[in-house]
Amino acid sequence: MKYLCLIYDDETIWTSMPGDQMEAVMSEYFAFTSDIQKNGQYLDGNALQPTHTATTVRVRNGKLSTTDGPFAETKEQLGGYYLIEAKDLNEAIQIAGRIPSVRYGSVEIRPIQEFEETQ
Amino acid sequence: MNDSAAAELRERIGEIYRADSRRVLATLIRLLGDFDLAEEALHDAFAAALERWPRDGLPANPRAWLISAGRFKAVDRLRRRSRFETARAAIAGQMAELEGPRIDRDFDETGEAAGQTDDRLRLIFTCCHPALSPDARIALTLREVCGLTTEEIARAFLVPVPTLAQRIVRARAKIRDAKIPYEIPTRTDFAERLDGVLHVVYLVFNEGYAASSGDSLTRSDLSEEAIRLGRLLVELLPDAEALGLLALMLLHDSRRGARSSASGDIVLLEEQDRSLWDGERIAEGRALVERALRSRRFGPFALQAAIAAVHAEAPAAADTDWAQIVGLYDVLLRTDPSPVVELNRAVAVAMRDGAGAGLAIIDAIIERGELAGYQHLHAAQADLLRRCGRSEEAAAAYERALALAAQEPERRFLERRLRELREG
């Protein structure tokens, strides 16, 4: 079963964090990623650039409109994700609980919708 | 088989349903991997029993028969479903697994289904999974583990039936779609998950216990269900906190007959007619507390039960061993610190050392800005102020409590106290 772990945190904490602390968190991230890669639980993962780079797009009545900024203004922003393989939600919770950012922000776990192909 | 024997057998099937349907369901959920399918299979199995047993006689092991029949019926349903829908690989796979020669492996020589105890625990832990909302955990536990109907649960929690039905449908869908596993938690998170289960049971109990008038009849059934759940947990898993929770519920419940007057008014612990207390429940609760405390792995539930036991041991309110109660609160405050425990300890201190000593502790809680919206803080403060003869301040505190009180009997109690105070 595949789960998407969406990492939300207050992105301003990253800009105000002292350099050595930032480095420590980054090395935690590297260690975590390589660990779940070794276990075969890692499918994909990325960090996102901050929300000031975000653009939201809609098409209404055939007309495309774009707005500056993320879809929703929230206290915690989507800052990255992991796509993982886990045997069930319990295992996914265990893995998500080790993402370094859970200590500052939160991780939302969403099962991937599988569309079965008809024979 | 003659008519009277057949009638007797039908009655026996009713008994088996009441005693064993939840166990059969728990195993069917494991075998079928789906709550809805398992529930349909359970009903099919009992329908088949009603048809076959009066004709063929009671099987040697009714529970095993029902599980086999349920599984067989489920395969049947899946086959029919796959004929109507597009034949899906998933269903084919599920059926192949179900039709395999696994029946024999599920039952040992005695005919007992292997791992049936585990199935019931799996069911409890799954219904109380922390990924479900607290409301959903309660509804699902009462529905699947206790076998209450959706209507019964809705009535007991005073919510519309469609709301509750929706809650159960959503919870089952999340279990299926997010793949919440049907398993007993592993050692690493066992203690935390068990704690979650115990809290669900305690919430059910309190929901029933807090209701002291009006619709109290249907609501007090909730306390009965919670005690039944507590017994089941103790039977399956005699953990110190499970023992403590059952003891706590029994000891509280022993006072049910004494805690409100004929007119539905609240009677405080110190004014209760102790001859109305249920001695059997007290004896059972006390024995459980002792067992829990002896294990030395006890926690907040066992400690609260121990406090309730000290109250139960006093033949009259004046005989209460307040020193021991304060001591137990001290331990409780260390293991599970919270302002509510602090408040309860303050009341016990007031009984041991005088109202002024209790008031000082309450003042400290208020100074920290805690429990301002908690009715019982103001009511306790009011009572201690009254005992110190500070009537005006006491009246103001009763007013604050009254503004927060939601339940009718509680409002009447506070209004009565306020009246007495003003009439001096």
Shape of chain A: flat
Tell me the count of domains of chain B.
Answer: 3
Strand content of chain B: under 5%
How many E strands of chain B? 0
Query: Pair with the most extensive interface?
Result: A-B, 11 and 14 residues
**CA-atom Rg of chain B in angstroms:** 26 Å
Helix content of chain A: 25-40%
Low-confidence stretches of chain B: 100-112
Termini distance of chain A?
21 Å
Number of helices of chain B: 20
Rg for CA atoms of chain A: 17 Å
How far is the first residue's CA from the last residue's CA of chain B? 78 Å
User: How would you classify the quaternary structure?
Assistant: heterodimer
Order of helices and strands of chain A: EHHEEEEHE
Q: Helix- and strand-based class of chain B?
A: mainly alpha
Strand content of chain A: 25-35%
Major sheet of chain B, described briefly?
Answer: none
> How do the strands line up in the largest sheet of chain A?
2-5-1-6
What is the tally of beta strands of chain A? 6
How would you briefly describe this protein structure?
Chain A is α+β, with helices and mostly antiparallel strands and 119 residues long. Chain A is 28% helix and 34% strand.
Please, could you describe this protein's structure?
The complex is a heterodimer of chains A (119) and B (424). By secondary structure, chain A is of the alpha+beta class. Chain A contains three helices and six strands, in the order βααββββαβ. Chain A has a four-stranded antiparallel sheet with strand order 2-5-1-6, covered by helices on one side. Chain A has a two-stranded antiparallel sheet with strand order 3-4. The longest helix of chain A has 20 residues, at 19-38. Chain B has 20 helices and no strands. With 424 residues, chain B is mostly helical. Chain B folds into three domains: 3-112, no CATH class; 115-237, no CATH class; 333-424, Tetratricopeptide repeat domain (Serine Threonine Protein Phosphatase 5, Tetratricopeptide repeat, Alpha Horseshoe). The longest helix of chain B has 30 residues, at 3-32. Chain A binds chain B through residues 1, 87-90, 93, 109, 111, 116, 118-119, and chain B through 86-90, 129, 131, 177-181, 183, 185.
